[in-house]
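We examine the record.

___
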Amino acid sequence: MLRAFQHGGRRGTIRDTTLDNDYSLCDRVGSSTNILPKFTPLPANDLQNHEYVGVPLWIPDAQVRQAAYTWILERFGDSVDCHKNQDFLDIVPPTCTKGTGLQHLVEYLQTERPGSSYEVHTIGDSWNDIDMHRYADRSASFSYSPDDVKAVTTDCVDKAYEFIETSL
C-alpha cells in the first residue's frame, strides 16, 4: 500500500501510530495539519520493527480521499477497518472503533472496581466518532459536523468547552 501511495501521484500523507510514537512514512501534501502536527520520520526499511495501532492517512482532497477509502476496503477490507474522518482515513485492526475502545475501557474499569458504574460522555466531529457516540450515555457533535454525525448525538455545540461545562 505504501508503494502504491508513494508512486501513484496521490496527494496525502501516511502516518503510523504506535503506543509510543507517531511516525511519518510519506508526505505528498507538503504541509502539516494541526490535528496530528508532530511525527518522527520513519524509513520504509524500519517498518517491520514496530507494532502499530493505527495508520492515519491525511488526504485533504475529498475525491482522492473517497477513492482511497474505496480502494482500501476493496483491497484490504477483510484484514483492516477504515474509518472516515473529516480530512483523514483511519486504518485500524478489524472491529476496532472508538466505541469498542470505550467498551473495553469500561469493562476493564468495572473489573478493577466491581460494583462501580460509569457514565460515558463523548465529543467528536466526524464519522469515525459515530460508534463511540452510540456507546455513550451522552454525546456531542459540533455545529460543523456532518448531519449523519449530528443525528447520533444527544447534543450539538460550537465549542468543546460548552459540552464539558454542561456535562460537569
